[in-house]
Design goal:
Blueprint: H1 2-12, H2 14-45, H3 65-70, H4 73-76, H5 83-91, E1 106-115, E2 121-129, H6 131-136, H7 152-158, H8 162-170, E3 185-194, E4 200-210, E5 217-227, E6 230-240, E7 245-246, E8 253-254, E9 259-263, E10 269-277, E11 284-293, E12 299-305, E13 311-328, E14 331-348, E15 353-361, E16 364-372, E17 385-390, E18 393-398, E19 403-406, E20 409-411, E21 415-417, E22 420-427, E23 430-445, E24 466-480, E25 483-496
Antiparallel strand pairs: 1-2, 3-4, 3-14, 4-5, 5-6, 6-10, 7-8, 8-9, 9-10, 10-11, 11-13, 12-13, 13-14, 15-16, 15-25, 16-17, 17-18, 19-22, 20-21, 22-23, 23-24, 24-25
Length: about 500
């Protein structure tokens, strides 16, 4: 009876019936398409040729996933810079412990070439992973035979010792063979130390400069002492290359009897140095310090410029403590966990200028900077960054457009220098407001030789030849991820006038 009524109703309104049937058919077709798309997405997500395992896959911004899957030119050579830093300080950081269960770095289907004993060359596709980490995210490799477990290299990558971390990021380099000015190559360990009452501070540099390794080059210990209201003093000791030992595999640097920087097993830097006053007084400076970086407070290193004027920079002691002594003649200053800082620079520096600063602001530590190549030494629009860490490590990076200097401070040499400075940025819901108040500034004329920065005797013709080294207070405010930023402290800053 019901079927009979339904059929008669369909025949009674033919147009309506056709419209309903067409709509029903269209709905079924759309559903089939959506189910097919969903099935394809599931198959693609589980495709081991993409990147297998886990709930979230992190890839470089702008990478075409299909190009990577098919092995096109755009996907063949992609990489993620500082991948270990991302693993330790972002994805697997203590800050995200409640959200992230496991992290597995992987390299998929990279094109390599194998040269056989008979000279024949074969293209191969190779993948790389940390075996235990890959198992933790549910994507273990299918083994035809043997075992697939972490080796020493895997363990060093995923959980390096403090000494291993220093050596990997803070080692020395050899100059590229095609430098425009090979004599201007310089590489150095830099430290600064602040007295407990903030009235005295020291800049300490262990540098290798010149045509390294086969030309005319040498080492130098350079220490500049500062005291509030008093002229700075420079102490230096030049070391012939026969007494210099450095390595591209570790961070240790030796100048024989004149000093050394050595990474200890627990990760702290042991410094020893001797230098003589450059003012002709005959005073000798001796230092023995242990500089201990705070956990997770580091910048992993970056290439600042490339081409024929390369330069690089790493900060392994963005927030550090110094213990030991610095003696000038018969007077010694002793330090016990004093505020300290350490970075490492390398490259060619003729005509290069920069803005730089590192400061504490309560529980936060700040690093900012930008580098201008020689051809654009007056360009105020060079890229700028502000790097922020706290007790859990990396917190945020900001990219303000400029540093707003207030050049009303009288400085011997250029005449004027910054009295205050400000870096400000709004990015979505995040904000940064960093204000600097300069307490002391010293200017050096870089048109003469400035061996301490790898300049050699190159006389530069710059619109901003005066190099300013400053000390002052930093005040931080703003917001990151809905959490307020606030703190004050002391730091050191550099710029040119």
């Amino acid at each position: 009876m019901i079927w009979q009524l339904a059929l008669r109703n369909l025949g009674f309104r033919k147009l309506r019936t056709l419209f309903l049937l067409a709509g029903y058919g269209l709905g079924v077709a759309v559903m089939i398409v959506l189910l097919s798309v969903g099935d394809a997405m599931i198959a693609q997500a589980s495709d081991e040729k993409l990147v297998g395992g886990g709930d979230v896959t992190v890839l470089p911004e702008g990478l075409d996933v299909e190009v990577m899957k098919t092995g096109g030119v755009g996907g063949m050579f992609f990489s993620i810079a500082n991948a270990r830093f991302l693993h330790q300080q972002l994805l697997g950081a203590p800050r995200n412990a409640a959200l992230v269960r496991a992290v597995a770095p992987q390299i998929e289907s990279k094109l390599l070439y194998v040269t056989l004993a008979n000279g024949r060359e074969l293209p191969v596709r190779a993948s790389g992973e940390i075996p235990d980490a890959t198992r933790d995210v549910g994507a273990p490799a299918l083994l035809a035979d043997g075992s697939w477990i972490n080796d020493d290299g895997d363990r060093r990558w995923i959980a390096p010792s403090l000494a291993g971390l220093r050596h990997d990021a803070d080692h020395f380099h050899l100059p590229p063979p095609d430098l425009a000015t090979p004599q201007s190559w310089g590489e150095w360990h830099y430290f600064n130390v602040l007295s407990p009452d903030a009235s005295r501070w020291y800049f300490i540099t262990f540098i290798v400069a010149g045509q390294v390794p086969a030309g005319d080059w040498a080492g130098q210990v350079l220490v500049t002492t500062h005291a509030a209201g008093r002229p700075a003093r420079r102490f230096s000791m030049t070391v012939p290359k026969s007494q210099v030992r450095f390595s591209t595999r570790d961070a240790n640097l030796s100048f024989g009897a004149s000093g050394n920087v050595e990474v200890q097993a627990d990760g702290h830097y042991a410094l020893r140095g001797i230098a003589r006053a450059e003012d002709g007084s005959g005073d000798e400076l001796r230092l023995e310090l242990a500089v201990t970086p705070a956990p997770r407070a580091y910048f992993p290193g970056a290439t600042l410029m490339g081409g024929d004027t390369p330069s690089g920079y790493a900060v392994l002691g963005l927030r550090a403590a110094a213990t030991g002594s610095i003696c000038v003649a018969s007077r010694c200053e002793r330090f016990d966990a004093a505020q300290a800082y350490h970075d490492h620079n390398w490259g060619t520096w003729q005509g290069v200028t920069w803005d730089w600063g590192a400061a504490r602001a309560g529980s936060f530590t700040i690093l900012y900077g930008r580098v201008r190549p020689p051809a654009s030494s007056g360009n105020v629009d060079a890229p700028l960054f502000v790097y922020l860490v706290d007790s859990l490590g990396f917190r945020a990076v900001f990219r303000p457009r400029q540093i707003q200097y207030d050049d009303t401070r009288v400085v011997a040499g250029p005449g004027r220098g910054p009295a205050t400075a400000r870096l400000f940025e709004v990015r979505g819901n995040d904000t940064l407001d960093l204000r600097l108040t300069i307490d002391d500034a010293v200017a050096s004329d870089t048109r003469g030789g400035l061996v301490g920065r790898g300049e050699g005797d190159y006389a530069r013709q710059l619109v901003t030849p005066w190099f300013l080294q400053m000390k002052g207070r930093a005040r931080l405010s703003g917001r990151v991820g809905g959490v307020a930023l606030a703190g004050e402290g002391i730091g050191f800053y550099e710029t040119y006038r």
